[in-house]
Amino acid sequence: MKLKWLSLLAAAILCGTVSCSVKGGSSDSSGITVNDTGEKGDGMTVTFLDVGKADSMVIQTDNSTVVIDCGEKGDGKELVRFLKDQDISTVDCLIITHYDKDHVGGAAKLINKLEVKRVLGPYYQEFSDEADSFRDAMKEAAIEPEYLRTDRELEIGDAEYTVYAPKEDYYGPDNDNDFSLVTKVKYYDTTFLFTGDAMDKRLAEVMDIGDCDFLKVPYHGRKLGNLNEFLDRTKPEYAVVTTSEKEFSPFTEDALESHDVDYRTTFENGVVTAFSDGSTITLSSER
Fold first, then answer.
1. How far apart, in whole angstroms, are the C-alpha atoms of residue 162 and residue 153?
2. Which of 52, 144, 183, 226 is the most buried (most CB within 10 A)?
């Protein structure tokens, strides 16, 4: 896996993590972003839990917590433990990209154990034990889910979220992946893009989504025919692939490397953290 700057690699060896940054925006001499009022923000942290070939991500600012996907059923316990270790008892928004078991499986556990204020999901139905448990947990907690048929813009804490709904009502038999909600998060001058399990049709729908600094690679790093075009359009500097060694395609690896994207995979690096101070993004991992 490539690092763009040898100096960062040297620093990583010294501190035990691998890190890198993108430039832009303004910060004071301490490196912390200063907003328009002159007040310093504490930054935004995105944690990619190591849950195998599944997705579970936590986005935190000093005044908000958002969860995107909850992994499989057994991963809900790990997600809840992580949040409690961060002294988080309330999730401002839970975004379920789609209802496959490796994305919605742990959602019931999260809703049962912590306060979840708001739930977003795509507008289609999936009938499985995991999806049924998710719906039952929301009913028990008196949560009215928002099933999106159109895009939604949200301001949560210091971050701006745009959640892009699928444009079709049907993508073919047994193809739930293209219903994936795609979420763009803007934190001051840095932009993150989360693509769920979007496959070729879904990527084509969001091909004009604009540049991003950071990409959560779609579909667990499996081969997608238009991934190169998507990377051309979005121009990410950095990326994370939530995957297993078996699922990570050499095609995707080559695409990321040919576009000079500095990336991490959860199967190689374990838990991965991306931190934005509003002008730079720093990656670190547990191994």
1. 4
2. 183
pTM of the full structure = 0.87
Q: What single-letter DSSP state applies at residue 34? A: B
**What pLDDT was estimated at residue 41?**
63
In degrees to the nearest 10, what's the CA dihedral of 40, 68, 191, 286? Answer: 80
Domain boundaries, the chain: 41-282
Residues 125, 135: contact at Cβ < 8 Å? no
Backbone region of residue 219 per phi and psi (left: phi > 0; alpha: psi in -120 to 50; beta: other values):
left
**Using DSSP, how many helices (H) and how many strands (E) does the chain show?**
9, 17
pLDDT at 31 over 60: no
CATH topology of domain 41-282: Metallo-beta-lactamase; Chain A (3.60.15)
For the record, the structure tokens of 57 come out as: 């991500």
Contact 281, 264 (CB under 8 A): no
* Distance between first and last Cα of the chain: 13
